[in-house]
Amino acid sequence: MIAAAGLTIAAVPRATRRSPPSGRKAVTLSGQGQSIEFTLTAPANSIDFRYSVPDFASGSISLYVGGAHHRDIALTSKWAWYYGSYPFTNNPGDGRAHHFYDETRALLGTSYPAGTKIRLQVDAGDVTPVTVDLADFEQVGAAAPRPANSVSVTDYGATAGVFSFNTVLLPILANNIAVYGGHDNTVSDNVVADNQDQGGGLHIANRFGAVPLAGTTTVTRNTAIRTGVLDSNWQFGVGALWFDGRDSAITGRIDVTDNDLLDNNYEAIQFIDGATTDVHFDGVRITGAGTFAWQLQSKPSGSVKNVVATGIGQAGVNNCLGPDALGGLADQGGNSGWTTTYCGSWPAPVYGSDNGGPTTTPPPSGNLALHKTISASGAQGGFPPGNAVDGNPDSYWESTNNAFPQTLTVDLGAPSSITKVTLRLPPSPAWGTRTQTVTIAASTDGGSYTTLVGPRGYPFDPASGNTASASFAATSQRFVRLTFTGNTGWPAGQVSEFEVAAA
Fold this sequence. Notes:
Elements: E1 7-8, E2 27-29, E3 35-39, E4 44-52, E5 58-65, E6 68-76, E7 81-82, E8 98-99, E9 102-112, E10 117-121, E11 130-138, E12 162-164, E13 167-169, E14 177-180, E15 186-188, E16 191-193, E17 202-205, E18 216-220, E19 223-225, E20 241-245, E21 253-264, E22 269-273, E23 276-289, E24 292-296, E25 300-312, E26 315-319, E27 329-331, E28 341-342, E29 373-376, E30 397-398, E31 406-424, E32 434-443, E33 450-460, E34 467-487, E35 494-495, E36 497-502
Parallel strand pairs: 12-15, 13-16, 14-17, 15-18, 16-19, 17-20, 18-21, 19-21, 20-22, 21-23, 22-24, 23-25, 24-26, 25-27, 26-28
Antiparallel strand pairs: 1-2, 2-11, 3-10, 4-9, 4-11, 5-6, 5-10, 7-8, 29-31, 30-35, 31-34, 31-36, 32-33, 32-34
């Protein structure tokens, strides 16, 4: 809810000298007393908001909670402006001023319940004008202690080739995340957003003289937001996810699964220069793209499944390479929203349109429990149930000790056809072999449960991945519950990943 009138910013392409806000709109507070107010929909103890102020301005904005002044939050323009042409400067005398959004955050000191009103307001002495793009409110937990019997990678050197669980914002003249050559790389569970001139969100390439990509490159469970820009040298858009075989064709296998490409400034997926010959897409959701879902400047081959696009500005596919340009990607079903094609001069992005073609939603696939709501009958401090669905194999849930039976229940969000449950423990050899006794049950309403697999001992051995699974006849269920009644390695139920497979 906006408590005072502000300036609404219309859609802004990247070719202009200001970066677009999320959703292409924001509110500018330009005078004393103007404010923007938010009502919490869930308990929160922190605020994180994106803003922009004039260059060389610094100061604060006033934060109110429940109508009372809580604190002043410092704002600065230091990181939000550049000038001139490539490679750009910090000198206003070079002209062509370009601003983008900064972020700041603050803990509120205590948790406030849903319904609490939180307001950002310009008081006497505060900086003006200040443009507020968005605000997030989160319940930030205490830092988790290092797990018992764990081994720190810092004791032995970081794991090469893995880039996971990172947030990368506002790179200039760079991609958010780039993989240049190497073998068996993994890019997973990252959030990337708002790269500036030159670069895209996620980049896989044989470039800069690197050892060519080999083995399997895995790109999974990443979210890219407002990534990909108009390259000031090339004068065409760069993809949120793009592949470049500039030094040599990319022949190593690439698996692209369960990724979200949101509010893309130009195209969502791009192939350029040399061919990419073994790339496989499964579960890519393209939600908004200023130009295209696919921009083909080289021909890929592999497979494509469950790639669904909505909100495409110009056309589903940019293709001036001929009718066979996408033919190398075997259509394995579930694809929609990108049937229209375009070939011509590079068009300006269009936001809020849907010119990609008809869209259908494929049935759920993969691990249906990932990042879903989960609860437990009990948890040992520092090992909450959310660790079992966070996609991180090194974090884990541990039930209350010495108190069997214990339950772990995941809500899939909607009834889904399921056929298998997989349980994982951390892969570290520090976890000794153990057997856990578990019953698997399910429910359509969270009240009445039906047993899918009766009580059984599941061995977990780090030598074979510390993984156990159980299959059963396909059944439509929303809630899946594990009941633990024994563990030969520790007096509690333990799970690092609770996976539920779609039928």
